[in-house]
Amino acid sequence: MKWAYQLGLLDAAKTGSTNHPGLVVFDEPRQQEAAPTSVAGLISEAARIASSGAQILIATSEDLASVRNFLVNVDHQLLVFAGRIIDRINPTA
Asked: Residue 21: helix, strand or coil by DSSP?
């Protein structure tokens, strides 16, 4: 429901005058134990909405093979990072 709401607000902003910045960020969508088909639907709908100029970022630590399966036939840009890209700050460094 949260994904649909967030994407719906972005989609509605395409046709009306709103203060929406045109950006939605999803962090670990599978964290809520969503079914793989639900995540595939999220990605497909996100790609449809993004095709009109919006930007949708999805960050995940999901297995890369699974991510690639989700992205089949979806216009996307995949960035893969080795290791953590956000970590604790070491106060002694």
From this structure: coil
Indicate the DSSP class of residue 34: -
Q: How far apart are CA 37 and CA 71, in angstroms?
A: 12
The pairs formed by 70-74 with CB atoms below 8 angstroms and a separation of 24 or more are: 70/36, 70/39, 70/40, 70/43, 71/43, 74/43, 74/44, 74/47
CA dihedral sign of residues 29, 34, 36, 37: negative
pLDDT tens digits, residue range 10-43?
Answer: 999 988 888 999 999 999 887 778 888 888 899 9
Residue type for position 17: S
Whether the model pTM is above 0.85: no
- The neighbouring-strand residues paired with 58 are 26
